[in-house]
Amino acid sequence: MRIRNLLVATAVAVATLSNAWADINFLGSATNTWIGYNPVGSTPPTLNTTAPGSITGPVSGFRYARSSDAAGAFSPSPLFRTGDAWGFQFDGILGNNTIFRLEFANPTRTAGLVFSMQNATAAGGDALEVDSLGTPGPTSLFAGDFGGAAGGTQRVFGNLTITIQSSTTALVSGILSDSVGVRWNTPVTMDLGNTAPTLFAALNINNGNVTGINTLGWTSTPVPEPGTLGLFALGLAGFGLARWRSTRKR
Q1: CA–CA separation, 21 vs 19, rounded Å?
Q2: What is the C-alpha end-to-end distance of the chain, expressed in Å?
Q3: Number of C-alpha atoms within 13 angstroms, CB side, residue 48?
Q4: What is the pTM of this model?
Q5: Residues 63 and 104 in one domain
Q6: Do 30 and 57 have their domain in common?
Q7: Nearest to 87 by CA among 239, 238, 199, 219
Q8: Which domain covers residue 117, as residue numbers?
Q9: CA atoms of 81 and 203, how far apart (whole Å)
Q10: 10-residue block means of pLDDT along the chain (250 residues)?
Q11: Residue 126 in contact with residue 119, Cβ under 8 Å?
């Protein structure tokens, strides 16, 4: 009976380990699950969450939206735990003179993790950056011209993971590319900024639009708790003991 209980515990631990993550997908979600923030209750961008998706900002200035689903709220304690991984996935077309950001942010945008893309009109003005709100400045991943030329619309692909290394630093890894090819794939270290009780999957856009969205998502993969790992190991040990006893009886 004890061995059976250990096997059940192993199954529970495996399920916990394999499902200890959350993800938010923009495509396929209902537009009413995205609400304005910064300030709370403000008008969000115009959202089309049906593939290929689109996001349209105001003629000038920023508009912000965050997920209002329970799954879109992240409240680990402490907020940034060593080993936790936060991810952004994007495949879409940036309009000319557009700044688009994917974020894990609090409603006042004083804490969070940000992946920023800028398609500028001036030569050399395009940029890919990561930022932790509250730090002196963003960390540059790419600066130049998307597609090898200034202006126009540009398709950008990004798959970014921010892994927490300590309470003050994180490792940024992944790949960012455009029609020319890979623009960044060299891991860099970024500083972590302020902390907050809860971060939300969020986005904001300045002036322009994003169209042809094939992928737009946020992921959070927490490091397994020590107790879960211990339970997993104990279950495996019980499984091995059961196999050993079964072999001896033969």
Answers
A1: 5
A2: 20
A3: 15
A4: 0.83
A5: yes
A6: yes
A7: 219
A8: 22-221
A9: 23
A10: 46 41 89 92 95 94 94 90 97 97 94 96 96 88 95 96 95 97 97 91 96 97 64 44 52
A11: yes
